Amino acid sequence: MTTTADILIRHDQPIPTWFRVGGRADRMARPRSVDELRRCLEIDPALRILGDGANLLVSDEGVGELVVAMDDEGMRAVEIDADAGRVTAMGGARLPQIITSCVRVGLGGMEGLAGIPASLGGAVLMNAGGAFGQIADVVERVWVLDRDGHEIPVEREQIRFGYRRSGLGEHIITRIELRLDHADADALAERRLEVMRYKKTTQPMADRSAGCAFRNPILVSDLEGIGTAGERVSAGLLIDRAGGKGMCVGGARVSDMHANFIVTGESATASDVVSLMVEVAGLVHDKLGVKLTPEVVIWRREP
Fold it and tell me: How far apart are CA 106 and CA 32, in angstroms?
């Protein structure tokens, strides 16, 4: 443990992810404010931001860059103005708790994101969503730090939201403002439960997984029984049709419940997950001619 620029840095720290596999951080800091986050950038401009770890796989070798965990209370603060329909939250705030709080006070627009584990900053960065909506639908404004430590407000129309992207990847999201609609709290609560019930019956939510392993691709040509050229189709359906359900490498396995979920057992390693993703992508390409792109973010140690 060392102290640099008033920042406490711990060494050889575990990096918690939903896969529960992977290496450690050579250095880790937990800033309590944007000012402390800015000082972390002074220590290592190439630092990595750790949100909820829900969409992350860390290589078995770990990482050498400073890992900044956004789990201090100061980086998770949330303010809800129910009358104005506005939520202002720090980047480390947890998406599920924000959804629950908004539903309780009758603010609608986020209940379709129920069941997505993420920090709010991570959700905005990748435009998290699914069949019931996406976070871009409610984002009003985002504040980011550039790698020089300058905090910049970015208006909604300046953000290049698209399928699982925001265009903000080079920046660090510090704060987000959301704009929601007034609605009946009981109806919102029922809708949230409906979404959760659907996910529990179609996704392996109790298993160790980082959610969807691959992005849903756009077909470049017609594929009988699946879709037509130019259509975005389910990666899980493609993997299933190619015969990928149940495939295993070491302790990693393609879920029998949803083929786009890779789940890990007690003996699994990050290398098992990566190897299985390579095998699955190869299978789909060989059988169906479709290229799959990982949705899971993979941190590797730089040489």
Answer: 30
pTM above 0.70, yes or no: yes
Residues 213 and 295 in one domain: yes
Res. 131: pLDDT tops 90: no
Among 192, 212, 215, 253, the one annotated catalytic? 212
User: In total, how many domains does the chain have?
Assistant: 3
60 and 85 fall within a common domain: no
184 and 115 assigned to the same domain = yes
Residue 159: inside a domain, yes or no? Answer: yes
In the annotation, is 295 catalytic?
yes
Tell me which residue range forms the domain holding 108. 76-188
Q: At 5, is the pLDDT very low, low, confident or very high (cuts 50, 70, 90)?
A: low
- Indicate which residue of 39, 156, 164, 300 is catalytic: 164
State yes or no: is 212 an active-site residue: yes
40 is catalytic: no
